[in-house]
Amino acid sequence: MDHTAKRLLCGVKGPYLPNGQRVGSYSMEDGRRVWTRHVSHDRHLVRIRNGWSINAPVLDQLLADSVEIVRYVCGEQTYEIELTEFLTSSEILKGFALGEDAHILQRSRWRMASNTSAEFLPLFVVSNE
Predict the structure, then answer these.
(1) If we measure between CA atoms, which residue out of 11, 42, 4 comes closest to residue 25?
(2) Contact 78/89 with Cβ under 8 angstroms?
(3) Separation CA 122–CA 129 (nearest Å)
(4) What pLDDT was estimated at residue 110?
(5) 48-68 pLDDT, tens digit each
(6) CB burial of residue 62 (10 Å; 0-12, 13-18, 19+)
(7) I need a surface site. Which of 62, 69, 70, 122 has the fewest CB within 10 A?
(8) Domain residues of the chain, as ranges?
């Protein structure tokens, strides 16, 4: 079974692996389609390149579904990149992911943002004295 077998479902929630498992989810932000994937540092980080990867068939689904932003959430960190930038900057490792090609981009090339909510400092302190 290949990744495209789930083609009808991909445009709704997100791309799928060959076993039918959904990989991440889609959202719309400022009129742009974003693919967000929650990953584990231990399982998903490609150590030989210190980067995040996208298997070629999943990447094909992202392109077909007009994704513009790729976002990986790992613990307290969020890594984000435009899909076009990922495509032009990533390297391909042939047969890397269970025989599938994988596109890999070093973490240093991704933009980072914290997942924790910002704490606001008061501008004024009102005293009843």
Answers:
(1) 11
(2) no
(3) 18
(4) 93
(5) 788 999 989 899 999 999 999
(6) buried
(7) 122
(8) 3-114
